Amino acid sequence: MTMKHARYHQTFNGDILAGIGNSPISPTRDFHIHDHYEIFLFLGGSVNGFVDQYSYPLERGNVLLFNNHEIHKIINLSPEPYERLTIHFKAPLIYPFCTATTNLLACFQNRQPGEHNLARMDEPLLTEYMTLASLLIAALESEQYGSEVLALTYLIQILVIVNELYSRTRSAVPSIISSHIQLAMSYIDNHLHLNLSLEHIAGELNVNKYYLSHLFKQQTGGTIYRYVLLKKIALSKQLLAAGNSVSDTCYLSGFNDYANFIRTFKNITGIPPGKYGKKS
């Protein structure tokens, strides 16, 4: 399949979202998290893939996996379009198809956040994957009888391929994030319960706040403020899913103001924290 002149488009059917094509920017340009799991297949261009404390220069056939707690973004290094195929899905959709010996969600769950997200696909497997993905997108776009069932079967086949690929090709790829920024991110991760301002982080690391801010933006394409905010929201989602109250979650995830926590959580996730806890 060639996508040299295709624009990026997405097809959504309830619990499954699939997108294929190219454009200079991603639909979400900043750091983000979402409740869907995501399979990101890179097909061409010049980009870095960022997830949590890691950033990787991508090559054709690279597959990045994101679960629902990992902060990520794609950084386009040129004004030219880049080609990709993305699939999002909600994990509960797949639970009934996991067995004692085949956990179709293992590649998303059995690792630390931001670690071992990258796998590599050779051209023969890439062709097979693209065929299945095209069938998935066609089923999502169809209104014919059984199309939603067909879409689910294609997604399951894709997850079998991805998990096998992940177990075979995943490796500890050196990140292009510098030690200074990794140290800042580690500090943030370990102190989410605090009020983490730029001044506070720079002071704890004994670096100039303007230098830290510039270096962070240069290497990640985003701001420390946005990174801290999403890290706190990711933690709050985990706390709510574990059964913590909204007030306890507000305190444990480092939000000093209850009303601000409610507002921020809803702005980022689309629902109030009280409803999120009941939904999880």
> What is the averaged pLDDT score?
88
Classify the beta-strand content into a percent band.
Answer: 15-25%
Q: Radius of gyration, rounded?
A: 19 Å
Order of helices and strands, N to C?
Answer: EEEEEEEEHEHHHHHHHHH
Name the strands of the widest sheet in spatial order.
Answer: 1-2-8-3-6-9
Tell the overall outline: globular
Structural class: alpha+beta
Distance, first to last CA: 38 Å
Largest sheet: 6 strands, antiparallel
How many DSSP E strands?
9
Q: Uncertain spans, ≥5 residues at pLDDT below 50?
A: 1-9
Keywords: DNA-binding, Transcription, Transcription regulation
Pfam family, one: AraC_binding
Protein name: Helix-turn-helix domain-containing protein
Domain HTH araC/xylS-type: 182-279
Give a brief rundown of this model.
The protein is globular and about 55 Å long. It is of the alpha+beta class and 280 residues long.
Q: Could you walk me through the main structural features you see in this protein, from its secondary elements to its overall organization?
A:
The protein has helices at residues 106-109, 123-141, 147-169, 179-190, 198-205, 209-220, 224-241, 246-252, 258-269, 273-279, and strands spanning 9-13, 16-23, 37-44, 47-51, 54-57, 62-66, 72-76, 82-89, 118-120. Strands 1-2-8-3-6-9 form a six-stranded antiparallel beta sheet, covered by helices on one side. It has a three-stranded antiparallel beta sheet with strand order 5-4-7, with no helix packed on it. The protein is an alpha+beta fold. Helices cover 44% and strands 18% of the residues. α2 (123-141) packs antiparallel against α3 (147-169) and α7 packs across α10 (273-279). β1 (9-13) and β2 (16-23) form a beta hairpin. It has ten helices and nine strands. InterPro entries: AraC-bd (IPR003313), Homeodomain-like_sf (IPR009057), HTH-like (IPR037923), HTH_AraC (IPR018060), HTH_AraC-typ_CS (IPR018062), RmlC-like_jellyroll (IPR014710). This is Helix-turn-helix domain-containing protein. Keywords: DNA-binding, Transcription, Transcription regulation. Residues 182-279 form the HTH araC/xylS-type domain. Pfam families: AraC_binding, HTH_18.
